[in-house]
Design a protein that fits this description.
With 223 residues, the protein is an alpha+beta fold. It has 3 helices and 9 strands; from the N terminus they run ααβββββαββββ. The termini are far apart.
Length: 223
């Protein structure tokens, strides 16, 4: 039986099959690499957008609240044992993970002595790797509370710890999901003269791939 020439021409030779297979593998590998790059790019862009949003919201909020305060102190951290004495305040050039912003106003009249009207505390809860969320806790005093300067050298710390006595994270608001302090491993740097630098790094992502960005902000209460 004779083979139809037109049917014989439809068959592929072994070299042709090898060439097609090689081309397919090259195209598949290139496509897979392209898809991985696209995935990585999308991941980076989405996390970078979250970081930018975090930086904007955090810096605007703490700048506004610092400007509205009269003075502030930096402490090593939020644990009571590290903020219960005047000596716990970080001096000029020193750093800590707890910033206390104090609002005072004359009460009841403009010529009367100043009273405490609000205290706002920002603090970072760091883990063993030096990373952790930044929390915010606030106490308003209505009516304003008397500033008792006659009850000892540590009168402010005594007053503060009376109202912020327990380290209960459920009472605190998270303002940054994950941050790493860059000022000697701490978040807040006391510049002196009632000015502070916030120097940190915001982290988004997972253990496999992380996106970070640093932020550096100088803030000063109105005095």
């Amino acid at each position: 039986m004779k083979t139809n020439p037109s049917q014989a021409n439809l068959a592929f030779t072994l070299p042709e099959i090898m060439v097609v297979t090689t081309l397919f593998l090259i195209i598949s590998t290139g496509l897979a690499t392209f898809m991985v790059d696209i995935s990585k790019g999308t991941f980076w862009v989405s996390k970078k957008a979250l970081i930018s949003n975090d930086v904007r919201n955090f810096t605007l909020r703490i700048s506004r609240e610092t400007l509205g305060a009269n003075t502030g102190y930096v402490y090593p951290d939020y644990q009571i044992k590290n903020r219960n004495q005047r000596e716990d305040r970080r001096a000029s050039g020193e750093t800590g993970d707890c910033l206390v912003l104090i609002h005072t106003d004359p009460y009841p009249d403009i010529d009367d002595p100043k009273h405490y009207t609000k205290i706002i505390i920002y603090y970072r809860q760091a883990d063993e790797d030096g990373r952790g969320p930044v929390y915010r806790v606030e106490k308003d005093f209505d009516p304003p509370a008397t500033i008792e300067t006659g009850n000892g050298y540590d009168h402010f710390e005594t007053f503060m710890n009376k109202h912020f006595s327990a380290h209960n994270l459920t009472d605190s608001e998270i303002v940054l999901e994950l941050s790493q302090g860059l000022a000697d491993g701490k978040l807040f740097h006391n510049l002196g003269n009632n000015s502070f630098v916030i120097n940190g790094e915001i982290i988004h992502g997972n253990k496999v791939e992380e996106v970070t960005n640093t932020y550096n902000l100088t803030i000063s209460p109105r005095g």
